[in-house]
Amino acid sequence: MKLKNLLSQCEFTILSGDLDKDIVDVIYDSRKVTEGCAFVCLKGFNVDGHKFISDAVEKGAVALIVEDDIAPIDGVTIVKTENTRKTLAYMSVEYFGHPANELKTIAITGTKGKTTTVAMIRSILEKAGIKTATIGTLGIVIDNQIYKTNNTTPESYEIQQAMRKMVNEGCKAMIIEASSLGLKWYRTAGIVFDFGIFTNFSNDHIGKAEHADMEEYLFCKSLLFKQCKLGLINRDDEKWAEVTKDHTCEIETYGFDKDADIVAHNDSLIARPGYIGVHFETTGKKELSVDVAIPGRFSVYNALAAIAVCRHFDLTDKDILDGLNEVKVKGRVEAVPVVGDYTLLIDYAHNALSMENILTTLKEYKPTRLVTMFGAGGNRPKDRRYEMGEVSGRLSDLSVITEDNSRFEDVMDIIKDIKVGLDKTEGKYIIIPNRVEAIRYCIENARKGDIIVLAGKGHEDYQEIRGVKYHMDEREIIADIFDNLS
What is the architecture of the domain spanning 3-95? Predict the structure, then answer.
């Protein structure tokens, strides 16, 4: 593809060379430079791509996209733009042939609920026979094949590349978690989403490498509603009006607020062995009686978002109801089949706040016992361990303390720190350092009506010890334990 075509949507200045040059690929990582490519110099928090220009040229880059003034280099076209991240996004759109135009695209932003809402929407659309791929915390998911990514919202090149693959493999819809940082750094630039969803807003992602303050954090989330056709907004969130302040899209709302376009009411908890969830009904632009296979009132909001968007697709009410009733989110309060009258859940909760949220939610279901198995990550602040121990000791009937990703620390040192928090409470606990044996203990000692939470690993399928990641999938471990029990 000609460089001039790749830059057709961009504003730029030519520092040297010409645009009538064939480009075989668009690369922003100097380690991946190939002969005949364009190298885009990105400025990150820790790394500046401009420092690798000589390496890129030596490896065969024939064009450079820069923000700084660069002296001419023989045989290399140098193009200066105000923001190379934004330019990378638009070049990637051109390079992969505008794949978003061949998909129904849904972007979700919000502090919490993005991953779960993605899973709910996908579950509904797949029930309706609409092949759907996703991009987010779990990676890029196409046909249940997971391609790992470094960020919730990957770099723009990876997004466009993934969407082209989705189209080639017959997908009709794509759902992406649009993080505030992804929006801030133009990773989704060049896409006009068919639907944008706002779940909620709370304190998060403030720091030198993220957002300067809460105002910037909220502003970056609001950017989604300047690049979508229809915004679907949680009206119950106190920031809903601010996040849509300068929107350029149409707006519809959902929530318990009677003025929302889709209103939830009559919500209640559902609990039976192997299934905990919520029931609610909706009125307004969609009237349904819904059961959701994920516990907690927050599941109502995520389901409302899914209903709000899916009603715009060609599908039936049954597709919506079945999709929500059978939805599973890997590692997010994920119910695992068991032999017995108790409930076993896998959850990603790995800090005090997330543990408090999930345990408080599960206590509402009044289990015989709430049993929490967890550890803490090595080479992380010790305060987290104290706090996690205190939360579990306060809210659990039994805490089973074990290993997590110990990294370069001794497991027993980490457990000792967790005990500091536990000992501030009157909560019962047992220490089983080996995680497999801890899971076995939970299963073999389960009582009728118990809810057992295996916390910390969630969707992860590895255990990190001394710099090595060993395969460990808790679902496989549980299946092996039951095979040996039978």
Answer: 3-Layer(aba) Sandwich (3.40)
CA dist., res. 25 & res. 482, Å (int): 50
- CATH superfamily, domain at 99-325: Mur-like, catalytic domain (3.40.1190.10)
Task: Please give the Cα distance from 146 to 134 (Å, whole number).
Answer: 10
Please identify every stretch of the chain with a pLDDT value under 50, giving residue numbers as ranges.
Answer: none
What is the C-alpha separation between 162 and 196, in angstroms, rounded? 19
Kindly report the pTM of this predicted structure: 0.88
**Residue 484: exposed, middle, or buried by beta-carbon count in 10 A (0-12, 13-18, 19+)?**
exposed
Given this model, what pLDDT does residue 210 score?
A: 65
Residues in a beta bridge with 252:
232
Q: CA nearest 59: which of 82, 86, 40, 32?
A: 32
pLDDT, one tens digit per residue, over 195-247 is 999 999 875 555 656 666 788 889 999 999 999 999 999 999 999 999 999 99
Round to whole Å and give the CA distance between 486 and 482. Answer: 6
> The tokens of 215 are what?
């105002």
Domain parsing of the chain, residue ranges: 3-95, 99-325, 334-485
In contact, 132 and 122? CB cutoff 8 Å: yes
* Cβ(145)–Cβ(151) below 8 Å: no
Cα–Cα distances (Å) from 400 to 21, 41, 86, 371, 418, in that order, read 63, 49, 48, 7, 11
For CA atoms 411, 415, 416, 417, the dihedral sign is: positive
Buried b / exposed e over 214-246, threshold 16 CB at 10 Å, is: eeebbbbbbbbbebbebbbbbbbbebbeebbee
The residues with which 454 forms a beta bridge, in sequence order, are 346, 373
Share of the chain residues as helix, strand and coil, in percent rounded to the nearest 5: 35, 25, 40
Residue 405 CA: distances (Å) to CA of 63, 360, 375, 378, 379: 43, 25, 8, 6, 9
Q: How far apart are CA 58 and CA 76, in angstroms?
A: 11
Architecture of domain 334-485: Alpha-Beta Complex (3.90)
What is the predicted pLDDT for the residue at 206? 58
Q: What is the pLDDT of residue 457?
A: 94
Are the CB atoms for 227 and 191 separated by under 8 Å? yes
